[in-house]
């Protein structure tokens, strides 16, 4: 006799599943809660570690300032070491000069030939249509031909007429200068400058930059093309400044700033010079001298150096913010021709 299974037998698995389901949910909930506490704890610990590290870095770098990178730190240390080395060398050079161990020029070797470092590069500011002025200079104090070469080799004095290029490159003005230079070989032609009376400050800046890159001289001078120079007196004066690595020499003055646009010496930036309307102290534009370190500074920073209406004021403005020795040399007051002067107006 068969016994049929009733509905009660079929309900047993459902009852067991019902018993297991709440237990699994509770275990899962407990596990999730513990995991949440663990993750939250780790995040909190990491946050505390970051806060501690930031405070420790701030404390060690001082006054709550951000720490610099290792690379930046190494660069700062290297720069400081180079600065100390440079200062030491400058002191040794000055001491050697004082003891008489330094000659007039520093000998250098170029291949198998020995040459002397130029004492000074003199740039005579000239322009198109001023050949008569250049010829007057050549006939008065600037030698030509082999004598010009002798002046460079024996006295270390390099002299060049400084001229830019025409706005119409290759025109008659450019060709005349090129032809004259082929004959005299006494030009420094600024290919990166457009010749213009209004752009003389930029021309002077370009001259110092190009001269510093072309000639490894101790000094560089800017001179107008209507000035006479006594090169022997100039050489003797410069020898007294060998121990000054950064020097600015000239007939120092500080003239009036003119705000009238019709005035010959009008300054468009007159409002920058205060209520007194007087320029800061600067060397007269007829002639002034700077040392190699200053010329190199101009060469490196030419793109950001501000120019004013006049080249002497422009150069003087660059010297204001530098650790440069200003030397007021009366013998460079060319217009007054004092006793023992090195220059005068032709």
Automatic annotation (TrEMBL):
One of its GO terms (cellular component) is Golgi membrane. Pathway: Protein modification; protein glycosylation. It comes from the Eukaryota. It comes from Panicum miliaceum (Proso millet). It is found in: Golgi apparatus membrane. This is Hexosyltransferase. It is an enzyme of class 2 (transferase). Its main location: Golgi. Coiled coil: none annotated. It is a single-pass type II membrane protein. Pfam families: DUF4094, Galactosyl_T. Keywords: Glycosyltransferase, Golgi apparatus, Manganese, Membrane, Signal-anchor, Transferase, Transmembrane, Transmembrane helix. Belongs to the glycosyltransferase 31 family. The keyword Glycosyltransferase applies. Its cofactor is Mn(2+). GO terms for molecular function: galactosyltransferase activity. Residues 23-98 form the DUF4094 domain. Its EC number is 2.4.1.-. InterPro entries: DUF4094, Glyco_trans_31.
């Amino acid at each position: 006799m068969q016994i049929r299974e009733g509905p009660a037998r079929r309900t047993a698995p459902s009852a067991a599943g019902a018993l297991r389901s709440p237990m699994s949910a509770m275990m899962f909930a407990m596990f999730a809660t513990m995991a949440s506490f663990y993750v939250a704890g780790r995040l909190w610990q990491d946050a505390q570690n970051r806060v501690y590290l930031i405070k420790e870095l701030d404390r060690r770098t001082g006054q709550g300032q951000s720490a610099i990178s290792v690379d930046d730190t190494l660069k700062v240390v290297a720069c400081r070491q180079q600065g100390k080395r440079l200062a030491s060398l400058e002191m040794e050079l000055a001491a050697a000069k004082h003891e008489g161990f330094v000659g007039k020029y520093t000998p250098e070797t170029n291949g198998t030939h020995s040459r002397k470092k130029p004492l000074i590069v003199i740039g005579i500011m000239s322009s198109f249509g001023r050949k008569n002025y250049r010829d007057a200079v050549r006939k008065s104090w600037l030698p030509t031909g082999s004598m010009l070469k002798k002046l460079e080799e024996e006295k270390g004095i390099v002299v060049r007429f400084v001229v830019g290029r025409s706005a119409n490159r290759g025109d008659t003005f450019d060709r005349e200068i090129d032809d004259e230079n082929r004959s005299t070989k006494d030009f420094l032609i600024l290919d990166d400058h457009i010749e213009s009376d209004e752009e003389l400050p930029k021309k002077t800046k370009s001259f110092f930059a190009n001269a510093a890159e072309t000639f490894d001289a101790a000094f560089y001078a800017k001179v107008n093309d209507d000035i006479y120079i006594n090169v022997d007196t100039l050489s003797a004066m410069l020898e007294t400044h060998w121990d000054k690595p950064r020097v600015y020499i000239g007939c120092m003055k500080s003239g009036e700033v003119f705000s009238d646009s019709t005035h010959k010496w009008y300054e468009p930036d007159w409002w920058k010079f205060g209520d007194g309307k007087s320029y800061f102290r600067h060397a007269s534009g007829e002639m002034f001298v700077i040392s190699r370190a200053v010329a190199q500074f101009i060469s490196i920073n030419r793109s950001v150096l501000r120019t004013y209406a006049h080249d002497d004021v422009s150069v003087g403005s660059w010297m204001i913010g530098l650790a440069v020795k200003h030397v007021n040399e009366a013998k460079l007051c060319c217009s007054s021709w004092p006793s023992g002067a090195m220059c005068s107006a032709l």
